[in-house]
Structures are given as structure tokens and as C-alpha cells.
Amino acid sequence: MDQAVIVSARAVGKRYRRDGTAFDALQDVSFSIAPGTFGVLVGRSGSGKTTLLNIIGGLDRPTSGALHAAGRDLAGLSDGELSRYRNEKVGFVFQAFNLANEDSALENVLTPYLFARGRHRDAVERGRASLASVGLSDLADQKAGTLSAGQRQRVAIARAIVRDPVLLLADEPTGNLDAETGSEVIGLLKHLNHEQHMTVIVATHDPELTEAAGFILTLRDGRVAADEAEP
Amino acid sequence: MRPGKALAVATRSLARRRGRTAMLVSGVVVGVAFLVLLLGFVEGMRRNLVEKLVGTLPVTHLEVSTRSYGVGALQFDNPFADLDSAAVARIAAMPGVDRVLPMAGLRVAAQLRASFFGRGFATDAAVYGILPDQLGEDLPAGGAFSRRLSGPVPAVVSRKLIDMYNTGFAESNGLPKLNERILVNQDAMLTIGSSSLSPAAFGAPVDHVPLQIVGASDNVPLACISVPIEYVREWNGRLRDEQAAGAYLSAIVVAEDARAVESVARDLEAAGLQVDTGRESAEKIGAIARYLSLAFGLVGVVILFVSGLGIANALALSVLERSREIGVFRAVGASRGNVRTVFLLEALLLGMGGSILGIGTALGLQEVADRLILRSLPDSPLIPATFFVTTWQIMGLALIIGVAVSVLAGVSPALRAARLQPADVLKGA
Ligand SMILES: Nc1ncnc2c1ncn2[C@@H]1O[C@H](COP(=O)(O)OP(=O)(O)OP(=O)(O)O)[C@@H](O)[C@H]1O
Ligand SMILES: [Mg+2]
After folding, report:
1. Quick check: pTM over 0.80?
2. Which ipTM score applies to this complex?
């Protein structure tokens, strides 16, 4: 497979069955993304952005088509192998942060290490470094539930990058934040993309984000919008 | 996922939800404690009854008593309805029978008062009348065990009873131990016709008879005072009636040799008598104990089963509650197997914690129950120091069952947790 491609989708489809009738959340989606890209998925609500992001991140499987990412054919991986792919190659950031509020920021950041090999001490070191890179060194031992929304999303980003993934997938990361905090978070994602050469894919409604994007995919009812479809 | 990490996740999740964890653990505690209490009680009963109370007669000896046929006419058809002198003579004439040793039971209530080491005590007593022959080698020298014209009534106590007093009662009450030398020539007072459990009716005759212990023997009934048979017949006649004076309670039939025992037993049974060998009653009590432990054990298992259902329910609820957390675990690299492991481990920890606490609770409750029961019972060497015997096997069994029940209860919730689609549970703000 092409070295200059980190994610490539070929005719990816996702079909749900609802009350006996088939519903295509994704249909014939094809694209490829070069490593180090800052990519954006746009489209109206229900267009399939989250579904596609989950499939790229190995959290869901397509019902048709093929998806290659980080040198793997995701369709061919077992549950264990797919889990390892998520653990080592992918970082997820969600709109709702999804932190354990009772746990400290550092404990939250270290969650991926629960399912990884390696010594605890090294993990803690990595966790602190990760918190430092999102500017939260001082809050490592504070309970996640006591942090502000913007700080919580930073903790979530620190958790996503603690294993040094090649893919950082963010699903409406600013959806629960005010405009200013939101653009700070976007700035952080761009910074990670730029400084650490992580491939970042953000699903968003936010048209502002498209401006700086190196790759834009617009979804309409589960299909790639006609004007952007690959030849 | 390394076991240590899975354990860390499981313990952390249990610690985070203290209330729910406590509730689940207490379900196991109740079930396991019940199991241990019941099994310990049955085992205690088996030990106390089978191993202590059941004397084993020599192989040539059979104990016969009349079958209780109920009342009325039927009894007249049975030549052994009353075990009297005529019946004893008939038994003695049976082939293979060497001799017959009748025993008479005092038919009225009695109470014994004595003082040992300067401490007086009184106990309701059963009084048996026996022939000197029955004492065999234990017969005191000089014809001390016979009807006397005057002076105290000679009495013999069971050697086993002294053992029981020494190993149980004396130890648990901090009393000095007894031995035969101390006991012999001990004076006591026997009240006939009244006891603490059945005091004499107004105007009913009551006798006070001085008693002297003249020896101890293995050949006398365990839980009673044995005196020469003439006394008992006389007391029965005086305080009850003529018929009571003539009747025996039971008799020991001594066969000519071990080979004759079986045919003698058959003949006695054919003649309508109830025949007991020591082994038979031990087996009977053993069987009852086994039935009881089975029945009680089943009750404990049912309780555990019910708490198992509770655990399954609560864990299923907890899976729903924690679905988002499970989704995050999956997103950061947990496999279905990892999720399953964590949930099963939680169930295992609940089971182990609950079982250990349950065993401890049961041991504590046994102590309390022992004290309450012993306080409400009269002081007696017959009453064991403890009613519960909880062996390592019982504790091990309870631990295994407690853990197994909660792990089994955890299987379905764990599978459900592993089946969750992370894409579904992580949806939404
Ligand atoms: N598990 C499911 N079963 C049935 N239909 C589903 C399921 N998950 C998603 N869908 C449907 O698939 C379509 C795409 O959903 P998706 O969440 O990917 O959209 P989206 O672009 O992320 O929307 P939003 O901007 O609101 O987050 C929607 O119509 C949704 O209802
Ligand atoms: Mg979405």
C-alpha cells in the first residue's frame, strides 16, 4: 500500500437494520488521507460523520467496502487485534469528554495503559508529559469532575495522545464548549498536528475549521458530496 | 491485559461504588453465613451425639426394650408389652442367651444435689436401677453395690460422663477436673418425686435419699445415676404404683458368644422386642445427621442462589450504568475479552470478600449462640461446651460455593458488558 497514505477508504458502506428496513448510514465512501494531514469531516446532523470516524478508528466495522489505516486492513483484524490498533495507533476525542469524574486527571490520562503492555512507572511518566503538552501539568492530581469544560477536554486530548498515536480522531470536540474555549482546543489540535506530525481528523459543524484544513470531506446522507467525490 | 491491571481496574471500580459494593457483598455474607452456621451446627450435633452420647456395647451385648405399640388392647396381645420378671425369664431361656441384665428406670422426677470443691450444684437426674452383674469388672470390691439395710444408697456414674465433664464443661467453666478417686465416697442427696423441670404437685409424695458414689463404669447408661435395681423398684412402687414397681425399662441381653448374637437378635425381634446394638444407633444418628446437613445445606444453597440472583441483577444494572465507561475502555484499547475479564473479576472479588466476611460472621454468631443457649440451660456436664463445630472443610466448602455463586451470577452481566457496541454507548453529548 501507498506509503504516502495513512487512511484509505474504498467504497465503505455501513448499513443498519431498523424495524426490518435497511438504512444506509454510509454508502460508497472512498477517500485517502496522507500522513500528517489536518483533515475535517463536515456534513449535516445525521450525515454519517460519527459513523465514519468510528470506522476509521476501529471502534466500529463497515458492512461493505475496505478500510486501510496505519498499514492495516481493518476488516481482516480480530477483535483483539483491532483493540490493539485502537490502543497503539488511535486517539479518540469526544464531544462529551467521557472522563471518569471521580478519578484524577492523571488517572484518566493513564486509562489506555490499563490495556497496554509496559511498566506502570513509565506510564506515569508518559501521562505527566502528556498532561504537560496540553498545558495541565499543575492539575494532574485534581479530580476530573472538578475541572472546567475546557480543562476537561484538554485532559481528554492528553488521554488520546498519551500512547503517541498516529491518528487523532476528534468528534465535534468543541460541541460542548463556548466559542473561545473551543478555538483554544482547535488550536491545540492544530498544534499537535503541526508539532508532532499527528494525523488529525475532526468531525465538525464548524465552518471555521475548514479554512485551515488540508483535507475536507463533506458527507451528505451518508455519501461523499458530489463536488468532492474522488474521480 | 495483565492480571494485575485487570485486578486494579476491578478493585477501583468496586471502591468507587461503595454503596452498591456493600449491598452486593452483604448478599453473599448472608448466604455464606447461613451455610456455615447450618453446616457447623449439624457437624456439632454429629460430634456431640454420635461421638459422645452413643455408647458402643460389647459385641455380645444387645439392648432390648418393648416396642411402643401405642395404647390399649394391642398391648395385651404382646407377651413383652411389659418387660417384667416373667419376660426377662423367657428371654433368658432363649437359645444362645447367656444371661439377661434388666434395667429399671425411675418413673418419677428426681434431682441430685452434691458439692464438689466446695461448690454446690444441683441437677435434674435420670436414675437407673441395674444389677451388680452389669458392672462387670467395674464392680466395687466388698459388695458395695447392693441393697443396704441402712445408710446411703450406693451409686455408680458413667466413666464417659466424667470424661465429658472434664473435657467440655470443666474446661469451659474454669472448674477443676474430676477423677474417680475424688468421686468415690462422695456424698450426695437425691430428691425423688420432684425436680426443677417437673416440680412435685401439691401434696404429692417427695423423698430425700442420701446417696454415695461408689464407683464409675463404662457399662452403665451415660446420662444417669445407676443404683442397685431393688431401690428403683421400691421407689417406683412407693411413689407410683405396683405395676411401675414390676416393670423394667430395658434389658441387656448377653449372648453366649459373638456368633450367637445375630440369631438371638432375630429371635428377640420375632418375639416383638425392640433390639438395639450400639452400632445401630450410632448409624441411625449418623444418618439423621447426614440428612440434616443435606437439608440445611440445601437451605443455605437456596439462600445463596437467591443472593446470586440479586448479584446478577445488580451487576446487570451496573453494566447499564457503566456503559459509557465501558465504551471509553473499548475506545482506548480494551478488547471484548478485557471487559469480560474485568466484570468477572469484580464478581469474583465480591464473592471472595463476601464469603470470607460471611464465614467470620458465622463464627461470631456461633459464639453468641453458644453463650445464649448455654445460659438458658442448666449446668450439666452432659451439655457440650459448643453446639457448633466448623471444620476447615466446611469453611472451604462455603468459600468455594460463595465464590462460585457470585462468579456464575457475574457471567451473564459480563457477557452483556462485552457485547456492548462502543459506537452506540459513546453516542451523544
Ligand atoms: N446503531 C444505529 N442503529 C441505527 N441507526 C444508526 C445507528 N447509529 C447511527 N445511526 C444512524 O446513522 C446515521 C448517521 O449517524 P451519525 O451519528 O454518523 O451522524 P452524524 O453525522 O455524526 O450526526 P451528528 O452531527 O448529529 O453527530 C443517522 O441517521 C443515525 O440515526
Ligand atoms: Mg456525530
Report:
1. no
2. 0.94
